[in-house]
């Protein structure tokens, strides 16, 4: 498998923050009954696994004790979001077996992009479920579940369906864009990427506007993380020229693409606030949170941020997490490390449960969001 494929891969203080947050923003504590999530592998809780090949061992080993359709040893940030809102972990829309959609659905799939890439999943790992398709799926989901709910004669037939009135109070979360940048890196120069970036941001904004037309009001929008700090990218630079890497070993040019994406996204979210009356839009600086962790791993109880827990990546040989391959005639099984809780990177591209937990703890209380309110207040009352 090539790199591109995987890319495509509380207390008094809390009360004080809540009060100041409300005064500043007009937002107040809200009961969020459901989450609808759109994204890529950073928040896929089983979508691409249900659609194509199931995630294999050792993914899921830390928390679920079996593969759980997630690119991690355990939970993702979206799982910690659900937990903080006292909601169950989200079922993937594409998973037809045993799923409950009472409290929302997850449309994210590993490899998803904002723009349609027109590539084959089987060749590059690009997900056919780009953001526009995820939005089409949401529309079908809303219409179809609404009909079933109204037709149901017994409450037990409604148990796994969302309550139609919950769509307007739900939180609509986004974590997508990393694979658009990865595709830009694979296919073209950074100049070409900059030329298509406004279109990418437009398409994300269109998705938000469309959901707003469908009655969505509360939006929680992650920006994109420091793609240049993914260990698997760093491994390809053995003797980098001066000025290629920053002080933490991250590729400056790739991070600059993410920073530019985030600059334009933030500006667009600000504009959307004026265009979408009655909407609460929270912009979440995932880049800053992840970069903070990557710049101080030891202080936060982790080993070097470049270490990969699961997989074999030496010289230019890559055997991806859970896979087997022959290297110099010897078969290698790329298993996981002894203590994943000490690692930031699970498989070179995705984060461990421990890192996701750290990041979630830092974003959910509002310290990396605009406006600076905790997720429990990211709504209009
Ligand atoms: C993919 O195809 C669609 C429809 O033809 C087109 O609008 C879009 O620009 C294409 N995407 C890329 C990245 O070329
Ligand atoms: C494979 O062979 C190369 C060249 O002889 C060597 O540098 C490398 O360490 C070997 N790798 C393994 C896993 O044995
Ligand atoms: C948010 O939580 C993090 C992690 O516990 C903590 O370091 C930070 O100070 C908190 N920020 C606020 C504004 O409460």
Automatic annotation (TrEMBL):
<keyword id="KW-0732">Signal</keyword>
<dbReference type="Pfam" id="PF00657">
    <property type="entry name" value="Lipase_GDSL"/>
</dbReference>
<dbReference type="InterPro" id="IPR035669">
    <property type="entry name" value="SGNH_plant_lipase-like"/>
</dbReference>
<protein>
    <recommendedName>
        <fullName>GDSL esterase/lipase</fullName>
    </recommendedName>
</protein>
<keyword id="KW-0378">Hydrolase</keyword>
<keyword id="KW-0325">Glycoprotein</keyword>
<dbReference type="InterPro" id="IPR001087">
    <property type="entry name" value="GDSL"/>
</dbReference>
<feature type="signal peptide">
    <location>
        <begin position="1"/>
        <end position="21"/>
    </location>
</feature>
<dbReference type="GO" id="GO:0016788">
    <property type="term" value="F:hydrolase activity, acting on ester bonds"/>
</dbReference>
<dbReference type="InterPro" id="IPR036514">
    <property type="entry name" value="SGNH_hydro_sf"/>
</dbReference>
<comment type="similarity">
    <text>Belongs to the 'GDSL' lipolytic enzyme family.</text>
</comment>
């Amino acid at each position: 498998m090539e790199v591109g494929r995987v890319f495509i891969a509380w207390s008094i203080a809390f009360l004080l923050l809540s009060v100041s947050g409300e005064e500043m923003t007009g937002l107040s504590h809200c009961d969020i009954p459901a989450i609808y999530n759109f994204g890529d592998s950073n928040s896929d809780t089983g979508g691409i696994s249900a659609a194509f090949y199931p995630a294999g061992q050792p993914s899921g080993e830390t928390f679920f004790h079996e593969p759980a359709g997630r690119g991690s040893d355990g939970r993702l940030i979206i799982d910690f979001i659900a937990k903080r809102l006292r909601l169950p972990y989200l079922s993937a829309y594409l998973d037809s077996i045993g799923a409950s959609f009472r409290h929302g659905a997850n449309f994210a799939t590993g490899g998803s992009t904002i723009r349609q890439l027109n590539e084959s999943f089987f060749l590059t790992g690009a997900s056919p479920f780009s953001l526009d398709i995820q939005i089409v799926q949401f529309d079908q989901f809303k219409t179809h579940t609404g009909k079933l709910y109204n037709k149901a004669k017994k409450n037990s037939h409604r148990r796994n369906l969302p309550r139609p009135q919950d769509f307007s109070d739900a939180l609509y979360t986004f974590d997508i864009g990393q694979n658009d940048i990865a595709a830009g890196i694979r296919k073209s120069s950074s100049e070409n990427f900059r030329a298509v970036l406004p279109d990418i941001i437009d398409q994300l904004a269109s998705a938000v506007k469309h959901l707003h037309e469908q009655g969505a009001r509360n939006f929680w929008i992650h920006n994109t993380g420091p793609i240049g700090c993914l260990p698997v990218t760093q491994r390809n630079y053995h003797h980098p020229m001066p000025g290629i890497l920053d002080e933490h070993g991250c590729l400056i040019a790739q991070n600059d693409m993410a920073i530019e994406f985030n600059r334009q996204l933030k500006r667009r979210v600000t504009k959307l606030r004026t265009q979408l009356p009655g909407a609460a839009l929270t912009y979440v600086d995932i880049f800053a949170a992840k970069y903070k962790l990557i710049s101080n791993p030891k202080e936060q109880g982790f080993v070097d941020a470049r270490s990969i827990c699961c997989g074999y990546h030496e010289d230019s040989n890559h055997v991806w997490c859970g896979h087997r391959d022959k290297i110099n005639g010897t078969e290698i099984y790329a298993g996981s490390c002894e203590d994943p809780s000490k690692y930031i990177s699970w498989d070179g591209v995705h984060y461990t449960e421990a890192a996701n937990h750290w990041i979630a703890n830092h974003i959910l209380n509002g310290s990396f969001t605009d406006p600076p309110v905790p997720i429990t207040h990211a709504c209009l009352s």
